[in-house]
Amino acid sequence: MRISSYEPQKALLVDHPPAGDRWIHELKLDGFRMGILIDGRSVRIISRRGTEYTAQFPEIVAAARKLKTKNAIVDGEVVVLDKRGVSRFQLLQQLGADRAGLTYFAFDLLALDGKNLVREPLEERKRALAKLVGRRAGIIRYTEHVVGNGDKVFANACALGAEGIISKLRDGPYRLGARSSDWQKIKCIKRQEFVVGGFTDPSGSRVGVGSILVGYYERDCLRFAGKVGTGAGWSASFGRQLRRDLEKISIDKSPFDPPPPGRLGKIAHFVRPRLVAEVEFTEWTGDGRIRHPSLQGFRKDKKPREVIREREVSPPPAKAASRGRSRSR
Questions:
Q1: Torsion region of 18: left, alpha or beta (phi above 0 gives left; psi -120 to 50 gives alpha)
Q2: 257 Ramachandran zone, left/alpha/beta (phi>0; psi -120 to 50)
Q3: Region of 214 on the Ramachandran plot (φ > 0 left; ψ -120 to 50 alpha; else beta)
Q4: For 16, how many CA atoms within 13 A lie in the half-sphere containing its CB?
Q5: Cα-Cα end-to-end distance for the chain
């Protein structure tokens, strides 16, 4: 039975890597999660929210056409690598005429030549993926992994400057569209997406925007999480363009429930909650605010309503994999 759409499995955020050789560990990639859908000469690149990105990445399309398959669905991440070979979200945001470092890291294979693979164990899917993609450096690359030694892999990833690691059950099926403890993410730094709900005017030498007001959804309410006024690449030209973009979606009433407290709630300009920002920060305060935030960029691959406060949990015990629990179509 063939799969015709891309419904990526999601990982559970945990506070430390799971133990044992039943787990494999991959570097957490810092880019856009994308699926490659191949059907003959037709190649499509689709984001996790279903947006088409085929035209934006012609290099990846050309590389996908060279893969020896009639049809396939590949799961992976579009990234830009720095000079040390580490993926950097900011470099992807700045991608223009210079395409150096653009890479698609393939880490799973959902379907191949008419066969649905989602019920197959992860190791079998990755074995087929490695055969399809190869292990040489190119635009499309196979994502290597380490079996066991999660704590050591995590420490090495943090020392490298990576965002963290993804730990996956070796014998787990692919759970279409689900967030499952079969996949667990462990972060070296605190970082997540937030929804932009407003901004403040600049002061001093700054132009355009002073800071953006961000929050996350809790049920149907957008909760205020703080303001962000720094970040790599926050220049005068960035501030002016950001102001223009935000004024296009301005509204009179605060989208936050409750509104930002004190004077901030009175002087801020509010916007429709349409933009998703990637923010790095040091910690959460007791009243639900983020400390020392830094803007990393904006994401188009995630819907605002999907943005919630990520809370670390202890890894649940691994259960025996059940192929029957995975959805297929």
A1: beta
A2: beta
A3: beta
A4: 7
A5: 7
Residue with tokens 């926050």: 234
Catalytic site residue 70? Answer: no
Q: Alpha-carbon distance 6 to 73, whole Å?
A: 8
C-alpha 13/C-alpha 181 separation (Å) is: 9
Give the count of alpha carbons within 13 A of 253, CB side only. 4
Closest-CA residue to 305 (of 220, 228, 245): 220
Question: In degrees, to the nearest 5, what angle opens at C-alpha 92 toward C-alphas 86 and 93?
Answer: 140
Segment 288-320, tens digit of pLDDT: 899 889 999 898 888 999 999 988 777 766 565
Q: What are 114-170's pLDDT values in tens digits?
A: 999 999 999 999 999 999 999 888 999 999 999 999 999 999 998 888 889 999 999
Q: Which of 10, 28, 227, 303 is catalytic?
A: 28
Classify each residue of 160-181 as buried b or exposed e, where b means 16 or more C-beta atoms within 10 Å of its C-beta: eebbbbbbbbbbbbbbbeeebb
Pairwise CA distance, residues 276 & 40, whole Å: 35
Identity of the amino acid at 312: E
Beta-sheet strands, E only, within the chain? 10-13, 23-27, 32-39, 42-47, 71-80, 102-112, 115-116, 140-142, 146-147, 164-169, 179-187, 190-200, 211-218, 221-228, 250-251, 269-271, 276-281, 283-284, 290-291, 294-299
84 token code pair: 């040390």
The tokens for 116 are: 């649905």
> Nearest CA to 105 among 133, 84, 132, 131?
133
- Structural contact between residues 134 and 126, judged by C-beta atoms closer than 8 angstroms: no
Which is nearest to 111 in space by CA: 80, 141, 71, 140?
A: 71
Cα–Cα distance for residue pair 207/234, rounded to 1 Å? 10
Kind of pairing between the strands at 102-112 and 140-142: parallel
CA distance 68 to 52: 23
Share above pLDDT 90 across residues of the chain, in percent, rounded to a whole number: 67
In which region does residue 160 sit, left (phi positive, over 0), alpha (psi from -120 to 50) or beta (all else)?
Answer: alpha
Cis peptide preceding 261, ω within 30 of 0: no
Global confidence as pTM: 0.76
